[in-house]
Design a protein that fits this description.
Shape: globular
Structural class: alpha/beta
Helix content: 40-55%
Strand content: 5-15%
Bound molecules: nicotinamide-adenine-dinucleotide, zinc ion
Distance between the termini: 37 Å
Largest sheet: 6 strands, parallel
Number of helices: 14
Strand order of the largest sheet: 1-9-6-4-2-3
């Protein structure tokens, strides 16, 4: 069986396109209880962008701090319950922020129409009903969350996405001006998430002409942004990064991620390490799986003088390493892709612990 994926319904791309948000939303405002829910990264509270958000008196706007933790099932359930009990069902959800806010907007949209806790729906195609209209405005590029079919949530049991066709945004507004303020380290880590998506998508059994075409173009853009003679955080490169993120996301959607993401999930789940940063910490030590990619990555780290800590594992207990390895082992789709369907003959839980001990 070949994958049959749904894409974003509508996309606006361009500098200043954020100001089209009002007219885009006006067509949707008469649905349900006729108000919009905006979920916005707390970073923008008090910043000039806040004044440009087209909030009407009937709307609800929530500024969410994404620095304390990645999105949780409890957080999603609470947002849904508080809005439903105070105002009823919104016409739509608008997310303005990085990957965390993209996932919150996607997940909340689904949970408005699916009863019970979001923990019930962590996995593939467990969601029963389409969510409400949802629109994403990314303000950091890299995770590809703006295009993906999943909303990654950390629950009491597992870190796993609500993954189905209805997760995909109805609309995205891609305005590269919004990513200009991303701090330099984050610009690097999130961009490297895209780079790693492409390297992993390309190196495995699910790679195909379709995923390859997106990865090839996204990698070309990543190289211009991070290693070419005009590399660096410039407006031209921000335009490119926004497109690279989208294409990297599409590439992995039609293929799969691999060893680095499998380790990264373990680091995030057990140590709370953030996704893009965790990928960089792991990828740095995976030269035996992705030789050329890791070499190029190290050059980019050097060029942009990014700090990547070494010898982290000396402070981890055997229990923590074992727990991380277990999370990693339980991602068979990634190992299938990276090592082949006989991956269990090629790598054991103990070997995975060894990979963590390298970090
Ligand atoms: P993030 O949303 O967690 O934000 C990182 C930091 O950047 C925060 O401090 C935030 O306030 C700040 N920030 C955001 N926009 C800014 C701007 N324009 N200027 C200055 N600061 C800004 O970052 P992320 O790395 O994009 O997202 C990580 C999340 O994405 C994780 O929760 C991860 O699980 C999820 N993810 C989802 C998918 C998917 O397909 N759905 C894929 C990979 C990762
Ligand atoms: Zn990723």
């Amino acid at each position: 069986m070949h994958k049959n994926f749904k894409g974003i319904e509508k996309t606006v791309f361009g500098r200043g396109s954020f100001d089209q948000l009002d007219s885009i939303l006006s067509e949707k405002r008469s649905d349900n209880n006729k108000f919009m829910l905006f979920v916005v990264d707390y970073y923008f509270k008090g910043k000039p962008l806040e004044k440009r958000i087209p909030v009407k008196p009937e709307d609800v706007i929530m500024f969410i701090d994404v620095d304390t933790h990645e999105p949780t099932t409890e957080q999603i359930d609470n947002i849904r319950d508080s809005v439903l009990s105070s105002k009823g069902l919104p016409a739509g959800v608008v997310g303005i922020g990085g990957g965390s806010i993209m996932d919150i907007a996607k997940a909340v949209s689904l949970m408005f129409t699916n009863e019970g806790s979001s923990t019930l729906y962590q996995g593939l195609n467990l969601i029963k009903k389409p969510g409400i209209y949802h629109l994403g405005v990314p303000t950091i590029s890299g995770t590809g969350a703006e295009v993906s079919m999943t909303a990654v949530l950390t629950g009491p049991e597992k870190k796993l996405g609500l993954k189905c066709e209805w997760t995909v945004f109805n609309q995205v507004v891609l305005d590269p001006e919004l990513i200009a303020s991303v701090p330099r380290n984050w610009w690097f880590y999130t961009g490297m998430d895209t780079y790693i998506h492409c390297i992993e998508s390309e190196n495995g059994i699910y790679n195909n002409a379709y995923s390859h075409a997106y990865a090839e173009q996204s990698l070309k853009l990543c190289r211009e942004i991070y290693s070419g003679e005009n590399s660096g955080q410039t407006p031209e490169n921000d335009d490119k990064l926004m497109v690279a993120s989208l294409m990297g996301g599409l590439s992995l959607t039609y293929s799969e991620v691999g060893v680095c993401h499998a380790l990264s999930y373990g680091l995030s789940k057990i140590l709370g390490m953030r996704h893009c940063y965790a990928n960089c910490v792991a990828f740095n030590h995976l030269g035996d799986y992705y030789n050329d990619g890791v070499k190029e990555f190290k050059d980019m780290v050097k060029k942009h003088k990014v700090d990547l800590p070494q010898n982290l594992s000396k402070d981890w207990t055997d229990e923590q390493i074992n727990a991380m390895a277990k999370v990693t082992y339980n991602l068979p789709h990634m190992w299938n892709h990276a090592l082949g369907t006989d991956w269990k003959e090629k790598i054991t839980l103990k070997d995975m612990e060894g990979l963590f001990r390298r970090l």
